[in-house]
Amino acid sequence: MVEQQKVKMPSSSPDVLIIGGGLAGLSAAVELTSRGISILLLEQKQHLGGRTYSFVHPETGDEVDNGQHLMMGCYHSTLNYLETIGRSSLVEIQSNLSIIFRDPKKRPSLFQTVSLPAPFNVLVGLLRLENISFAHRLALLRVGMELILKNPDTNKHLQSITVAEWLDELKQPEENKKYLWDIIAIGALNDSTDRISAALFVKVLKSAFFGSRLNSSMVIPKKGLSTVLVDGAVEYIQQRGGIILTNTSVKRIPDITTQITSVELESGDVITPKAVISAVPYFDIPRLFENPGTIGLTGMDQFISSPIVTIHVWFDAHFMQEQFVALINSPIHWVFNKSKIYGREDEGLMYLAMVVSGAHNLVEKEKDELITMAHHELKRFYPSASIAKVIHSLVIKEKRATFSPKVGLEQFRPQHKTPVQNLFLAGDWTDTKLPATIEGAVQSGYECAETADKFIKSKR
Ligand SMILES: Cc1cc2nc3c(=O)[nH]c(=O)nc-3n(C[C@H](O)[C@H](O)[C@H](O)COP(=O)(O)OP(=O)(O)OC[C@H]3O[C@@H](n4cnc5c(N)ncnc54)[C@H](O)[C@@H]3O)c2cc1C
Question: Which atom of ligand 1 is nearest to the CA of 67?
Fold first, then answer.
C-alpha cells in the first residue's frame, strides 16, 4: 500500500469537488482527470477506499481486507477501471465460473460452467450439479426460462416479490434452494432470500449468466483491496494533477435550490467549485445535506443496512486445499484460503478469511465466541482442522456493509442528476440497477464524471 502524500489545500478552487474517497469517488476522479478536468477529492477518514480497504496484519505481514470482496466478469466498469489504473494483473479471472459447495454429509460438489456460448455454458453446469438429484436439477431449468423471458426492469410482478417467493413460484425444491439459490442470493445481495427483491436477483443472474461467457467468471483479488483498487487510482489521479486530501471532512451543506456556490469544510476552509459530486454512502447523506428533500432525496429512511462479518484466522497447519468454498448448512457462508490466493500456500501459517453475509444474528457477538464458532465449523467440514491450532485471529464487523435490497427500494434510489444543476450523486446506493457492489460504485462514479464533464464544458 502506498503512503498517502502530505498534500495541502489548493489555493484555487477545482472544476469538480468530489466528496468521498470510496470507489465511487475514486472512479469519478480517475475519469475526470483523464478528461483534463481539475478535481479535488476529499475523504473524511485517514484511508481511501471507503468500504473496500486493506491493511497489513502486524504479526504476519499479510494484507487483511476489511471483508473479502469478489468481483465477476460482468463487472465491466470495474475491469475497465482496473485497466486504466494499471492494476488488472492483480486480479485472477476464472476461465469458467467454478464454485465448490461443501456439505459435511456429502462429497464436495462443483458448480462449473463449460466452454460453450452463454447461457448454455451455465445450463450445462447446472445440469451437472452432483449434490442435487437429477429430477431437481431439471427444475433449475425453470429458473433459466424465467431469466430468458422476464425483464426485471419492467416486470412489475418481479419487482413486488422477494426471492423466496419467486423461487416458490418457480417450484424450486428445498434441495435446490439449499444447495444453490440461497448461497448465491445471500452472497450477491447480502441478505436472506425472504427480504431481498426478486427483480434485483434476476438482474444479477441475467448480467452474470447472459452475454459474454466470461460474465459469470469470478474475479479474485490476488492482493489486498487497497493495493488492487485504491493505490493505482491515487497515482493515476495525482499524476494528472488531481488533488486528494484525506482526514478532511465536508461540513453539512445548507439548503440549496438551484446551484451550489460554495462548500465549507470542518476545518473552516471554503471551496468554490464549478460542480460537486457527492460520493458518500446513503447513511452519511443526512449528515451531509441539511435537507435531502431539496436535492430530490425523499426516501432516505427506506435504506436499511445489512452487515457482513469476516472472521480472519491464521492456523498452524494447512488443512484446506481449495482457493475458496461455499459452505452448506453453516452460519459461515464462504471460506477463502488467503494463503493460497496470495500464492504462499506452502509457507508458514494458513490464513483463512470466513465470511458471514447478512450477519444480523452474529454482528453483536463477542470476538472469542465468533472465533470458536468458526473453528468448530471448520472441523465439521475439514476433519483435519481438529489438530490445527489458532495462532492469530481478527474479527471485522462491517455493520453497514451494504443496503439491504428489499422489495420496493428501487424506486427510492436516486438518479445521478439532481434538481441542483451542478450537484451529482454517485455511490453504490444510487440508481445503478445493481445491488450494493464495487461495480455499482464504479459505474456510478463514471456516469457522474461524464455528466459533470458535460456540465463544466457547457459553462465554458
Ligand atoms: C465486508 C464487505 C464485503 C463486501 N463484499 C463485496 C463483494 O464481494 N463484491 C462487491 O462487489 N461488493 C462488495 N461489498 C460492497 C462494496 O464494498 C461497496 O458497494 C462499495 O465499496 C461502495 O463504494 P462507495 O464508493 O459507493 O461507498 P463507500 O465505500 O462507503 O465510500 C464513501 C466514502 O465517503 C466518505 N465520506 C462520507 N461522508 C463524508 C464527508 N462529509 N466528507 C468527506 N468524506 C465523506 C466515507 O468516509 C467513505 O470513505 C462489500 C462490502 C463490505 C463492507
Answer: 1
Choose one of 51, 285, 357, 399 to mutate for the ligand 1 pocket test, by most ligand atoms within 8 angstroms of C-beta: 51
Number of structural domains the chain divides into: 3
Domain shared by 106 and 202, yes or no: yes
- CATH number assigned to the domain comprising residue 297: 3.50.50.60
Q: What is the pLDDT of residue 443?
A: 98
Ligand 1 pocket check for 393: Cβ under 6 Å: no
Q: Which domain holds residue 282?
A: 16-53+223-302+408-458
45 and 164 both lie in a single domain: no
Instruction: Identify whether residues 211 and 234 lie together within a single domain.
Output: no
Report the separation in Å between the CA atom of 168 and the middle of ligand 1, taken as the mean of its atom positions. Answer: 33
80 found inside a domain:
no
Evaluate whether residue 70 is within a structural domain.
no
Give CA–CA dist 201/55, Å, rounded: 32
Same domain, 376 and 248: no
Q: Supply the DSSP string of 69-132, one letter for each residue.
A: --EETT-HHHHHHHHHTT-GGGEEE-SS-EEEEE-TTS--EEEE--SSSTTHHHHHHHHT-TTS
Q: Are residues 117 and 194 in the same domain?
A: yes
pLDDT for the residue numbered 6: 57
Instruction: Please indicate whether residue 401, judged by its CB atom, sits closer than 6 Å to ligand 1.
Output: yes
Instruction: Give the predicted TM-score (pTM) of the model.
Output: 0.96
For residue 7, the model assigns a pLDDT of 66
Q: What are the grid coordinates assigned to 260, written together?
A: 451550489
Cα of 83 vs centre of ligand 1, distance in Å, is 21
402 Cβ closer than 6 Å to some ligand 1 atom: yes
pLDDT digits (tens, 9 = 90+) for 200-253: 999 999 999 888 888 999 999 999 999 999 999 999 999 999 999 999 999 989
In the DSSP assignment, the letter for residue 406 is B
Nearest residue by C-alpha to atom 37 in ligand 1:
280
Asked if pLDDT for residue 5 goes beyond 60, the answer is no
The mean pLDDT of 436-451, rounded to a whole number, is 98
pLDDT given for residue 119 in this prediction: 83
287 and 246 in a common domain: yes
- Is 383 part of a structural domain of the chain? yes
C-alpha cell read off for 247 = 482526514
Q: Measure CA 71 to chain center.
A: 8
